[in-house]
Design goal:
Elements (H helix, E strand, L loop, with lengths): L3 E10 L4 E3 H5 L6 H8 L3 E3 L7 H16 L8 E5 L10 H9 L5 E5 L5 H14 L6 E7 L10 H4 L5 E10 L3 E9 L7 E2 L11 H5 L6 E2 L1 H23 L6 E6 L4 H11 L10 H4 L6 H11 L8 E8 L3 E8 L1
Parallel strand pairs: 4-5, 4-6, 11-12
Antiparallel strand pairs: 1-7, 2-3, 6-7, 8-13, 9-10, 12-13
Helix pairs in contact: 3-4, 8-9
The chain binds oxa(dethia)-CoA.
Oxa(dethia)-CoA (UT7) binds next to α2, α6, α8 and β12.
Length: 326
Amino acid sequence: MTLKAGISGVGFYVPDKVLTNRDLEKMVETSDEWIRTRTGISERRIAEKGTGTSDLAAKAALSALQNAGLKAEDLDLIIAATTTPDMPLPSCACLVQAKIGAHKAAAFDLAAACAGFVYALVTAEQFIRTGTYKNILVIGADLISSYIDWTDRSTCILFGDGAGAVVLTPAKTGGILSSVIGSDGRHADLLKICGGGSKFPATAETVKNKDHYLRMTGSEVFKLAVRGMTDAVTESLQKANVSLDQVACFIPHQANQRIIDAVGERLGLAPEKVFVNLAKYGNTSAASCVIALCEALSMGKIKKKDKIVLATFGSGLVWGAMVIEW
Ligand code: UT7
């Protein structure tokens, strides 16, 4: 028998340190007004030096476990969606495993940039559906501030650090109804960090050239994000046989208010159904959708039996959407 998977606990963590638009005005040629009107962001959280993604992720994980009423030893598997692990080896997931004491779990990282959380949920769902595992921790976490060129105004205003986690378990009713993931590597150059990998390992020259920082062709990514998320949501709703009217809450990747508005308009979604918390956190990459999910729940925007839609998009390019009955 094929089992269904549902979310039985959620949690998130963001660092305390707030970086406001006014702070950025002192660092690069920009203005609070430009950032708010072009992106919708007012402030973002930045981790202290010496913090790793696994530190943020472990805090989010413990909160999700508590919310699910489970102990760390109950976990069968940990999947950490991140493209900013503490270090190339070992994985962020193994570091989280040790930090929370989930000693019976298998653990691995999944790299799908800002779309990582939906990719990781889809992956975890397969283990539940086949009956292989019962309790899976799915994390979306990034400490992207480590890769930001704080002299590049086109990127440094956009991003923030954070982590979110959910516990995925077999569901008798509801749960994940459908999902769509996709990618197009032909657009790989539009959003990338070139240095520090196997092709361009760290050298004095790569550091001098600032190759270790994130670079983005923002306007192209913008257009493809709108198209990618709109199409993924449409396809996932069709697969689930769910109409737009039945959707109680739409939780898009929190990258830019104008992207979110354009996707909402193209879909024909009522604006009050679209959840946005971008102003407070900026784009937290793989954590964005899961932090938004946590806040939507705590604000009472999602109730039992509600149908919700997640949609993500990121470097790769990659995208994903998922319909869930709560
Ligand atoms: O997680 C998924 C990945 N990322 C995204 O989804 C981001 C997608 N892209 C975007 O959000 C937007 O493209 C940006 C917010 C990055 C940029 O907004 P835009 O409306 O596409 O602006 P633009 O890049 O076309 O630049 C317009 C102008 C330029 O000046 P000129 O050439 O017209 O004189 C930029 O130099 O705005 C200038 N500009 C700024 N001005 C003040 C760019 N960044 C800033 C800034 N402050 N921070």
